[in-house]
Amino acid sequence: MAQNPDGPKIKKPRLSQDPTELEKIKELWASGIQNQAEIARKINCPKATVAENIKKLKLNRSRDVCIAVITHRSKGS
User: How far apart are CA 23 and CA 53, in angstroms?
Assistant: First the structure.
């Protein structure tokens, strides 16, 4: 957590609730930066958090591809 020199600690919002930060992860990953530590440094976020969100993105992408294949196959039948 960040510290405010004039008062109590300032809590950073959860990454999962910040669409702008999630979009930055997607953009960096899609641009070819496959190093999670590098992405974490660029967006100033813990590496574990970035890794967890990339894992979710991969799972969502895999699920979307499976749904698209199933939909395509059912239309072709």
Answer: 11
3-class DSSP assignment, residue 2:
strand
Q: Tell me the per-residue pLDDT of 52-69, one tens digit each, with 9 for 90 and over.
A: 988 888 777 766 666 666
Highest-pLDDT range among 5-9, 12-16, 21-25 = 21-25
Q: Are 15 and 21 in contact (CB under 8 A)?
A: yes
- Asked whether 56 and 22 are in contact (CB, 8 A), the reply is no
**How many Cα atoms sit within 13 Å of 29 on the Cβ side?**
18
**Model's pTM, two decimal places?**
0.61
